[in-house]
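Subject: design request, 188 residues
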């Protein structure tokens, strides 16, 4: 299940500026936009696509082992994220996993970036998000990604710096990465 936007790109991650479509990895997609669902249906006609609000995922979908929610939560306020965590807990079985990405609050505190508009204004530290996820979820594991601002570096240098970035994100510096990828486990 992908309880986020039904991103429809199918480009290879090696292509500049492109990410793989999450429906390449999931068989069910949930999206609040009928237009995105129509686009997804054109590319993935064999997938089950459901129109629903992220905070009201139909409980009839209560049979998933795992869910993915990427590049969504950073655009929502804490109340909506809390509602999403509650809603997703009704469709992922106890012991199942939910994998999300978040903007790193410690990193944001050390940047001079001004938060303007809707894009990426919500960030967390690990402890704060773990607390928000309760009582439905417990932290299984997390990882920092993008410590080096790879997206601002010329494409030909990225492969070399990506390996260094991955190594640094396994160190004590992980909490200062730009993003966290968090695996939550559904509480019994």
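Subject: RE: design request

Done. Sequence follows.
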């Amino acid at each position: 299940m992908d309880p986020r936007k039904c991103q429809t790109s199918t480009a290879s991650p090696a292509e500049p500026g492109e990410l793989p479509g999450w429906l390449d990895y999931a068989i069910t997609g949930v999206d609040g936009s009928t237009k995105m669902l129509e686009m997804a249906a054109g590319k993935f006609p064999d997938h089950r696509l459901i129109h629903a609000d992220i905070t009201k995922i139909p409980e009839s979908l209560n049979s998933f082992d795992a869910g993915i929610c990427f590049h969504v939560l950073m655009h929502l306020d804490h109340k909506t994220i809390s509602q999403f965590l509650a809603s997703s807990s009704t469709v992922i079985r106890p012991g199942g996993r939910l994998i999300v990405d978040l903007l790193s609050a410690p990193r944001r505190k050390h940047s001079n970036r001004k938060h303007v508009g809707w894009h990426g204004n919500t960030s967390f530290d690990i402890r704060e998000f773990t607390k928000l996820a309760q009582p439905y979820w417990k932290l299984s594991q997390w990882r920092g990604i993008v410590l080096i601002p790879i997206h601002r570096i010329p494409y030909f240098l990225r492969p070399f710096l990506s390996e260094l970035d991955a190594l640094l994100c396994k160190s004590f510096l992980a909490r200062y990465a730009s993003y966290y990828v968090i695996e939550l486990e559904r509480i019994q």
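The longest strand covers residues 92-104.
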